[in-house]
# Entry
Amino acid sequence: METSREGMRTLWISLAVLGATAAVQGVIVALSGSVALLGDTVHNVTDALTAVPLGIAFLLGRRAANRRYTYGYGRAEDLAGILIVAAIAASAALAAWMAVDRLLDPRDVTHLWAVSAAAVTGFAGNEWVARYRIRTGRRIGSAALVADGLHARTDGFTSLAVLLGAGGAALGLRAADPVVGLLITLAILFVLGNAAREVYRRLMDSVDPALVEAAEGALRGVEGVLDIGPVRMRWIGHCLRAEADIVVGPHLTVVRAHELAVAAEHALIHAVPRLTAATVHTDHAPTPGHDPHEALAHHGPLSTGAAAGPPAVPAPSSGGGSTWHG
# Structure
């Protein structure tokens, strides 16, 4: 809940800053007729409006899990990420169309000093918003908010590119302004690729391999855990969930095996940032001629956590139980 509040606060502050920046630029576009500045302004407006789907996603993410959405509504952030990518693509198409139109129908750019001031204003506003969004997104684990921050950062540098167009126009080069507009389009396409990659990885349940290594190290450090099996993680919104197998002694009681599972989950939560819960399955060390997972073999390799991948020791045997603590 607290991370959602922090995300919402970041979004609304960013919306206010970018909205003010775009308003200033819009006035100067109307005075000057600069297509480069117009493209930058459109992009800034698009960036500001991406706060809307993200804000809705953060609000949905606060809703409690139920019998239909058993993991809650955190995935709404991933859907918002798709909308952000679509918005970036639309702004790139619009900027390209306006630049090409101005190349085919050249027009003079006036009020060049104001255009230059608007370019610097756009850079300052976007860079501040970019740092704020990226910092908050990384702290709360929101890929969509990080992607939005990267979007704002590119907007800042494209704002500086408007200065080139203004300088060219001052030298009498009528094509300078629309050419800079095309360069801005290329920059938007670059950030589109980065944002799409971030959102794609989240949709495909990608996690940083370093997090898996940290989880494995934490599990091996739990006293009583003899070895470990597969460790899996996925993002649900800006929170991580994990599944892990641990190997324990074959003669433990169910109570003791459960205590070790709880200790393993506790170690995971402390070792992995943004991890909120884990399912821990206990296997006992192998005993000759006995495979308690035999009944599951005909269901395929992905039927259970224990059978889903190669274990850390040869043919681990039966589980004393599993634990789920949210």
In short: The longest helix spans residues 2-32. The longest strand covers residues 227-236. The CA atoms of residues 283 and 301 lie 17 Å apart. The chain is about 60% helix and 10% strand.
